[in-house]
Amino acid sequence: MKIGVCLEMFFTDRPFTDRIAAAAEAGCRNVEMWFIDATAGVENGAKDPDAIRTVAQQAGVTVTNAVIGSPDGSLGGGLTDPARRGEWLDRTDATLDFCRKAGIGAAIVCTGNGVEGSTRGQMRSSVLDGLRSTVDKADAYGVDLWLEPLNDKIDHKGYMLTGSDAAADLCREIGSPRLKLLFDCYHMQIMEGDLIGHLERHKDVLGHVHMAGHPGRHELWLGEINYPFVVRRIETMGYEGVIALEYAPTLDPSESLRRAIAYLEGEIT
Predict the structure, then answer these.
(1) Measured between alpha carbons, how far is 102 from 49 in angstroms, rounded to an integer?
(2) SS3 label, residue 82
(3) Sign of the dihedral defined by the CA atoms of residues 248, 11, 50, 94, in that order
(4) Cis (ω within 30 of 0) for the bond into 71?
(5) How far is CA 75 from CA 68, 90, 113, 159, in A?
(6) Cβ-based neighbour number of residue 231 at 10 Å
(7) How far is Cα 158 from Cα 174, in angstroms, rounded to an integer?
(8) Cα separation values, 246 from 45, 78, 209, 220, Å
(9) Is-above-0.70 flag for pTM?
(10) Using CA atoms, how far apart are residues 266 and 9, in angstroms rounded to an integer?
(11) Which candidate, 48, 106, 115, 163, has a CA 20 to 30 Å from the CA of 15?
């Protein structure tokens, strides 16, 4: 089992590169980030790809991914609005170039929010067209893409892509090994439930997994999801990617991370 942690939600009192070392000290060998030009919790938190590569190598840590644009499309233009396609592609170029320099193998793709005056079909067509162009760029940079459905009930009001079925269908329609599904158990528990059923149905396009407790988006053991069971079932599907923790810890971040790893590995209940 490869466990990762989102460093935009852990160790938020320090610069990003210091968070990498802190995650390694807590026993985590995979970390991830959000945007290339901001660090959550730190004012003026722009990131340096060369520094990230160096610190990660020194710590024995893999930085698995960045995020191209904000879920609502306010940063990067999103994919739902064809009028902002140039903005999205510029943002994609900048993010994928950063990933290549930093040694980051993947970038998360969010669709953006719904566009006023557009039908569902029009927005889906726009997303497909944008994904094709984005995949072409990903091929050129040698970086993978993970398409993420999110909940629009609590965290991302107005978000266009809210289900794993629709996201997996988009991945299959594009038909590129560069584009996979990011299955966030927290978001999909809110929107769909039946986590195992959806994971099994989409294992052919599954690229990455996120976990957080629901309700609250805190530690895994505080919510309604039996995560050790979910992990065991994911492993039986043949999934070999990272299972990443993307939650806001209520405990000291190092303690929370160590306990989460032990919890998923069955060492504690």
Answers:
(1) 4
(2) helix
(3) positive
(4) no
(5) 9, 11, 11, 14
(6) 22
(7) 24
(8) 19, 22, 10, 10
(9) yes
(10) 24
(11) 106
Cα separation, 70 vs 110, whole angstroms: 7
Could you report the average pLDDT of every consecutive run of 10 residues in the chain (269 residues)? 97 96 97 95 90 98 98 97 98 98 98 96 98 98 98 98 98 98 98 98 98 98 97 96 98 98 86
Tokens representing 265 are 């590995």
Indicate the residue type of 66. A
User: Tokens 């269908």 belong to which residue?
Assistant: 169
Which residue, chain included where needed, has tokens 């991302």? 156
Q: Give the burial class of 169: count Cβ atoms within 10 A of its Cβ; 0-12 exposed, 13-18 middle, 19 or more buried.
A: middle
- The domains of the chain, with CATH numbers, are 10-178+198-213+233-249 (3.20.20.150)
Residues in Cβ contact with 153 at an 8 Å cutoff, skipping those fewer than 6 apart: 190, 191
d(CA 263, CA 107): 28
